[in-house]
């Protein structure tokens, strides 16, 4: 877990390494530029993707934690895939930055997340499963997100998230969060219990009474 009394890491040690265009298919308004970094405090290969109109002033920022099962494979056990799609659309329109953080499984890694899924299929919720594995509820530290934003020249942002801890940690790391925009609610029968646990235990701003069109029909 993030420790609020950790001293801030010197942001001047972090700088972009390369910044290259992704060469998106035409028709998507503008290209996306992907940046890598030198000196990130956890040494992992996090990515920043700048989208939409350049120089948007206070950029819209999505701090997205890696979820291979949801982002890439389309798993409906969580809401990560639809959140990523939604963020990419919003960023293309408004102009902003996606920070794609390599924090799979809220920081416990892919294999242990799948261990946790097995425990959840036995009746534990997402946090109880982490605890049964001897792990904290959420191991994510967003120091690297603050470092990446500073290296890109952003110290004031609008944040797209339902997770209050992201704004709290960024603020503690010297980034001004001017506004927080909630993401949409992407509920389905397979992720309802997961989203309920997030709303009740970690106070994610998710309006659970909203039902998907599919659920209304079922
Ligand atoms: N340990 C664990 N990690 C999970 C589980 N389901 C999704 N994740 C991971 O959780 C991370 C996404 O976190 P979420 O809590 O869904 O959302 P958030 O990033 O806190 O908040 P938002 O900004 O609103 O999306 C990704 O790294 C996923 O791999 C699970 O059941 N157990
Ligand atoms: Zn996910």
Describe the protein in words.
- The chain is of the alpha/beta class.
- The chain has a domain of 140 residues: Rossmann fold (3-Layer(aba) Sandwich), CATH 3.40.50.
- The chain has eight helices and seven strands, in the order ββββααβαααβαβαα.
- Helix 3 crosses helix 4.
- The longest helix is centred in the middle third of the chain and has 15 residues.
- It is globular.
Key attributes of the depicted protein:
hydrolase, 8 helices, binds guanosine-5'-triphosphate, globular, alpha/beta, seven-stranded mixed beta sheet, 33% helix, Rossmann fold, 218 residues, RibA-like_sf, nucleotide-binding, binds zinc ion
Task: Describe what is shown at a glance.
Helix content is 33%, strand content 19%. It is α/β, with parallel strands linked by helices.
Describe the secondary-structure layout:
Layout: E1 15-21, E2 33-38, E3 47-51, E4 60-65, H1 68-72, H2 80-94, E5 96-101, H3 110-121, H4 126-132, H5 143-151, E6 156-160, H6 164-172, E7 176-181, H7 192-201, H8 213-217
Parallel strand pairs: 4-5, 4-6, 6-7
Antiparallel strand pairs: 1-2, 2-3, 3-5
Helix pairs in contact: 3-4
Bound molecules: guanosine-5'-triphosphate (GTP) and zinc ion (ZN).
Residues 67, 70, 78, 80 line the site of zinc ion.
């Amino acid at each position: 877990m993030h420790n609020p009394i950790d001293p801030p890491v010197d942001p001047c040690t972090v700088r972009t390494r390369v910044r290259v265009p992704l060469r998106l298919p035409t028709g998507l308004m503008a290209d996306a530029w992907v940046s890598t970094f030198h000196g990130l405090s956890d040494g992992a290969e996090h990515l920043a993707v700048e989208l939409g109109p350049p120089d948007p002033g206070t950029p819209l920022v999505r701090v997205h934690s890696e979820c291979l099962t949801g982002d890439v494979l389309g798993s409906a056990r969580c809401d990560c895939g639809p959140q990523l799609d939604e963020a990419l659309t919003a960023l293309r329109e408004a102009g902003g930055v996606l920070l794609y953080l390599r924090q799979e499984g809220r920081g416990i890694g892919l294999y242990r997340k799948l261990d946790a899924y097995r425990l959840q299929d036995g009746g534990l919720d997402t946090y109880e499963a982490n605890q049964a594995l001897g792990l904290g509820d959420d191991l994510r530290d967003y120091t690297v997100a603050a470092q990446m934003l500073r290296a890109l020249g952003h110290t004031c942002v609008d944040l797209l998230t339902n997770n209050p801890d992201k704004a709290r940690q960024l603020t503690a790391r010297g980034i001004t969060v001017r506004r927080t925009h909630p993401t949409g609610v992407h509920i389905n029968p397979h992720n309802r219990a997961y989203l309920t646990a997030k709303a009740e235990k970690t106070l994610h701003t998710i309006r659970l009474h909203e039902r998907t069109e599919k659920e209304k029909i079922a």
